[in-house]
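Dear support,

I submitted the protein below through the web form. The confirmation email said the job was done, but the results page showed an empty box. After a refresh the structure appeared. I'm attaching both so you can tell me whether what I see now is the final result or a partial one.
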Amino acid sequence: MKQLILGSSGQIGMALCAYYKSRGDEVLTFDIEKDAREDLRQPGNVLLLERMRQADFVHFLAFDVGGSRYLKTYQHTQEFLSNNARLMDATFAMLKETGKPFIFASSQMSNMSYSPYGVLKALGEAYSRSLRGLVVKFWNVYGIEHDLNKSHVITDFIKSARANKRIDMMTDGKEVRQFLHADDCSECLDILSRRYTEVPREMNLHITSFKWHSILDVAKVIADLYPGTAVYPAKHVDEVQRDARNEPDASVLRFWRPKIGLADGIAMVEKGMPWVR
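What the results page shows now:
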């Protein structure tokens, strides 16, 4: 199959590209980070139309997003809202024109109406349902990251522990999350794309590990990789998700199951991050 990956330079996009290439699939990439012409905010992008027509399947992963630090700073800004609204409107219009099967990458935060990011993802879900595409909800997918301005908590903690032998946390670390390694996520996306016609459109597809961990637990796992690293929780509580705790729908387990545990996954990320060495 020819797999078109929108957001191919992002954390999940890079992992998915590598996954498909290892399987021998043809990968078509699209990301503004590698070519200014690949700007999904542009209505009627001729290059996007060409790539979609070539593709057998489209993975819509692209979004202006980052970790908690990035969201806390930018998600309430006009630029953040405009980038994502324009990106979705133009891309879904192209998906409608080409009629290509697709998966839209949403978030478990899509029901958190106080979060502009969550509201935007809910809008993307509505677009997807109108076109009969598949919607998946990611739960804190982690992996190799190159854009450290948008990095997520695991990358931030690894970088700090390695450089300074200390982890200064943004919060008290009591909030809990479910983390999923990008390789597990890639396998799930592949299975869903190949069984696209079998998956009921009303099914809630939560792509997660189905295991809870506190942010403080994550910091301690990373500190253990660098003996002598001290962990310093802050006094602040979580302001991004406000420690809201959705429970994942397990329906996706009919098709796929995660394999990589948190400690093993963090070790894999640490070994694959030469730019922080």
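Response: this is the final, complete result; the empty box was a page-load delay. Residues 2-276 form a domain with the Rossmann fold fold (CATH 3.40.50.720).
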